[in-house]
Design brief:
Its cofactor is Zn(2+). It comes from Deinococcus radiophilus. Pfam families: Peptidase_M3 (PF01432). The chain has about 575 residues and is mainly alpha-helical. The protein has a domain at about 5-125. The protein has helices at about 5-10, 20-30, 40-65, 70-85, 85-100, 115-125, 130-150, 160-165, 175-210, 220-225, 235-245, 250-260, 290-305, 310-320, 355-380, 390, 395-400, 415-445, 455-470, 480-485, 490-495, 500-515, 520-530, 540-545, 555-570, and strands at about 155, 160, 325, 335-340, 345-350. Strand 4 (about 335-340) and strand 5 form a beta hairpin. The longest helix has about 40 residues, at about 175-210. The radius of gyration is 23 Å and the shape is globular. It starts with a helix and ends with a helix. The model has no long low-confidence stretch (mean pLDDT about 95).
Length: about 575
């Protein structure tokens, strides 16, 4: 059986199991049952099992749709599930939440205390009118997946996928990078004709979701929906300022040093990719593997060097069709880890083209997979698996660092030094982007006028881009390309989910700093924190992993000083 056949088998959902009639009797039985405080744990586990099955069905259909964005039948099946089954499940879940909250004399235990509070908050946020509006929102985000999944780029007279063309931005030949950049820009400008009105529709829906919930704006709605109780919007603004003051000058300094070594008169857009900075010696991009099978073998050896248990988990993913790494037409050009809770199986989707960045991204996504495995093993209730989103990127980002000492089979000494520098410089390059993404969304959903046009969005993004990427020379270029940099996956698909990457990158650097003196202890703390799942507040999860939940100027500045020292030694 080929890998693609194994993947298709893993994602298969029987037709009857994607219908509401399959789930409804069990929801009804749970709702009709008499419930005392003593009976809650068993009742709750039964509800969790049902919720896990529905979530797994939804996730399988979603992944299948992302792998086949050009297949109308597959898209229709997923959209039908989201339109017909999910709204009914949301209504049923609301009734079950109310039933649980009404049980007299019930006191949650240590592992359900946070869950009980979250359920209460979610029940308070529920509005019947937002159920159908949520269907419309899902249709719009799925439209974005379809548009970007089918995006084509013409380069050198040949039609290619976006990841294939982005690979050219790593070329040491400036003319190659420039041609690739212009090809991507032309394709993006063409796609913008559909993405811009799509965003206007999303803004309308999101504002109405907030209004229906009697909240002043969509930020307030998402703050409650995402259960953000450990920090405030004002602290996010502090982070934006801290990055502008402590990180942007460091990033500019790094880029200027690279430009000077390469003899560039200025840094043009095709000279800067935050995920893969130019090699200062002008060497060609590293190509540590060819094809997804070689990448899997490379990662297998790295995980074995780090920890046999982690290696066994990765081998399980290979064996059970839980990896789809190849880039191909019709496949959404993103990378992510999804999860099927009934079988405790994570699934990683990528679009690899043979670069060192692919290696880093695979470790990142498999770090998510480990989080799913460990929390799934430890937490019987499906809602207690994974973690709050402020922690969920730590297992992935920390894995990028923890594997650094186990790649001698993939890179020689010179290449390893390059890979390490790429990883460290990438953190510095990423933080301004994260601050820009978050600052844009705070403006978009709170300060922007209700009738904000695409031109207004472009103007704000341009203002922020000049703050967080001031070292890029756009002279003589169409600034519409720059101004539409907000055409990014998370802006359309997962609003207000981005600052978490920055929080977790800072924590991952801190974990790696500890691992340099105590590798075994750092790895055990990493595992222990994953096992806690979502049963502890965010600051406690950070502490369990050996990090601090901080993102103020002093803390960020101290970590930047550490990275400076590491870069000097690399």
């Amino acid at each position: 059986m080929s890998n693609l056949e194994a993947v298709e088998q893993t994602l298969a959902v029987p037709a009857a199991h994607s219908q509401w009639a399959y789930f409804e009797p069990r929801y009804t039985a749970l709702l009709d049952r008499e419930l005392s405080a003593a009976e809650v744990p068993a009742w709750l586990q039964e509800w969790s099992d049902l919720a896990a099955e529905l979530e797994g069905t939804s996730n399988r259909l979603s992944v299948h749709a992302d792998l086949h964005t050009d297949d109308a039948a597959i898209q229709k099946r997923f959209e039908g599930f989201m339109a017909e089954v999910v709204p009914q499940a949301k209504r049923a879940d609301q009734k079950l939440k109310e039933k649980w909250l009404a049980v007299p004399d019930y006191q949650p235990g240590p592992d359900t205390e946070l869950l009980y509070r979250r359920v209460k908050d979610a029940a308070d946020l529920f509005r019947e009118e937002n159920v159908e509006l949520g269907v419309r929102h899902s249709e719009l985000t799925n439209r974005h997946s379809s548009l970007t999944g089918n995006q084509k780029v013409t380069l050198g007279g040949e039609e290619r996928t976006v990841p294939q063309v982005r690979q050219q931005l790593d070329s040491p030949e400036r003319s190659v990078r420039e041609a690739a950049w212009h090809a991507l820009a032309d394709s993006n400008l063409e796609l913008a004709q559909e993405l811009n009105p799509l965003m206007q529709d999303l803004l309308t829906v999101r504002r109405q979701l907030a209004a229906n919930a009697d909240l002043p704006d969509f930020r307030a709605f998402r703050w409650r929906e995402l259960d953000r109780v450990d920090y405030t919007p004002e602290q996010c603004a502090d982070f934006h300022r801290a990055v502008a003051e402590r990180v942007v000058p460091f990033a500019a300094e790094n880029m200027q040093a690279i430009a000077d070594e390469l003899g560039l008169e200025s840094i043009r857009p095709w000279d800067y990719s935050r995920t893969s900075l130019l090699d200062p010696q002008g060497r060609p991009p590293m190509q540590p593997f060819s094809g997804s099978a070689e990448l899997e073998d490379l990662a297998q050896r790295a995980f074995k060097g780090l920890d046999q248990g982690l290696a066994d988990r990765f081998q399980q993913m290979r064996r059970e069709g839980l990896l789809d790494l190849e880039s191909r037409a019709g496949k959404m050009p993103h990378a992510y880890c999804n999860y099927f809770p009934v079988t405790n199986q994570p699934f990683v989707l990528m679009n690899v083209v043979g670069t060192a960045n692919d290696v880093q991204v695979l470790f990142h996504e498999v770090g998510h997979a480990f989080h799913g495995f460990f929390s799934g093993d430890a937490q019987p209730l499906s809602w207690n698996r994974w973690s709050p989103i402020e922690f969920v990127e730590i297992p992935s980002m920390a894995m990028e660092f923890l594997t650094l000492d186990h790649l001698s089979h993939a890179f020689n000494d010179e290449e390893m030094a390059r890979y390490l520098r790429k990883q460290l410089l990438g953190v510095v390059a990423f933080l301004p982007w994260a601050a820009q993404m978050d600052a844009f969304q705070h403006w978009l959903y709170v300060d922007a006028p209700q009738d904000a046009t695409t031109e207004d969005l472009n103007a704000k993004w341009l203002e922020l881009d000049r703050t967080y990427s001031p070292f890029i020379n756009w002279e003589g270029l169409d600034e519409t390309v720059r101004a539409q940099g907000w055409h990014y996956y998370h802006i359309f698909q997962t609003p207000f989910y981005y600052i978490e990457y920055a929080m977790c990158y800072l924590a991952a650097v801190s974990i790696w700093r500890s691992a340099q003196s105590d590798p075994a202890g750092a790895l055990e703390r990493y595992k222990a924190a994953m096992r806690l799942g979502s049963t502890r507040p965010v600051p406690e999860l950070y502490a369990a992993a050996g990090a601090e939940f901080r993102f103020d100027g002093e803390y960020i500045g101290g970590l930047m000083d550490f990275l400076r020292e590491q870069l000097k030694e690399a």
